[in-house]
Model the fold of this input.
Amino acid sequence: MFILHDKRLPREYKDALSYAFRGVRLLPFDSGRKKREGNAYASIEHHPDIFFFKLDTNTIIHAPLVDETYLSSFTEGGIELIPGSRDPGKSYPDTAGYNAASLGRTLFHNLLYTDPVITENAKNKKFELINVNQGYTRCSSVTVGDSGLISSDKGINTRAKVAGKDVLRISPGSVLLPGESGGFLGGASGVFNDGDVVFLGDLDLHECGQDIRDFIAKHGKKCVELKKLPLLDVGTILMWEG
Done:
């Protein structure tokens, strides 16, 4: 198993992931921002979900700047890689092009900001595209199976309900994002291909922690937590077999 994470992920989180998933290969992601002019502001500059979008279990669309070192690890796992049309810019909304959320055959994003390659491939695979106001849709959402969505964002929740999805609205807060006043729960998580969810931290430290566990269980999925650690937004870890 591979896990791609922000290279600044603290040691205690990496140790906890290695303990939870024996034999896992942790890949610290460096966007290369220091070698280029701009490319996302400091707090999110190495967040995977700023540079990668997982359309389905076998397809990832990535920013053109992503180094081949990371891409080769995906191909080891049999994942199709498709380069996007542009790299993230210095500030929002130019940082949000790859931060869409895929749930079953539905894609949620602020479609004004979506990288055109994502839109094209989603349409080719017969996805329903649903517009929301939030450009950081993936950060703001935890997807559960093909029909469950957890978010504190009222607009995302409303649009997901209209689309026939099962929604758990949670309270904001309780998630750390260094350099910012707070982060998002989606950014403090990752999803296996089988739909099980991993949280980078302990749900006991979230006001809605038990509701989140119950919702995930209702959808027939499991959740893994890193106990006794604060929930930490590192830009949605990417997980795949290889």
About this structure: The domain at 2-240 is CATH 3.75.10 (L-arginine/glycine Amidinotransferase; Chain A).
